[in-house]
Design a protein that fits this description.
By secondary structure, the chain is an alpha+beta fold. The longest helix has 12 residues, at about 60-75. About 10% of the residues are buried. It contains 3 helices and 7 strands, in the order αββαββαβββ. It is globular. It starts with about 25 loop residues before the first helix and ends in an 11-residue tail after the last strand.
Length: about 140
Amino acid sequence: MIPMSGMTNRRNSRPVLSRGETIDSCCSEDLVTVLEMKVEKKPFKVTDRLRLYRKGIMAATLKELLEKAREKFGIEEWMEVYLVLEEDGTEVDDEEYFQTIEGNTMLMLLLKDDIWSPEGPPYTMREITLDEIQV
């Protein structure tokens, strides 16, 4: 028997919402349950800034991935880091974009002053002269 909208499901005694009902129509206890739902962890491949080491890291959020990558590569918390797609240098800087990235994507962990390069280690701002900057 399929539960009708607003009636409780005997198995978990929570109201079952129909497609047309909004989250506002459920009680606060159910709202907490909805908010506590965890995002599934995905596997990522992360390489260090010199492309010497690769680590497999499972993470559900960008923050979690950054924390685990710091730990795996031994980067102190006071050092500012960021992630880019290893293949083209696209910066991964917000959660919404991070959630669209497929599992097993290769990412690169860079330090604040690093600039992604297609091969070898990243450039740093100190290494680039004005003549080298192409507009």
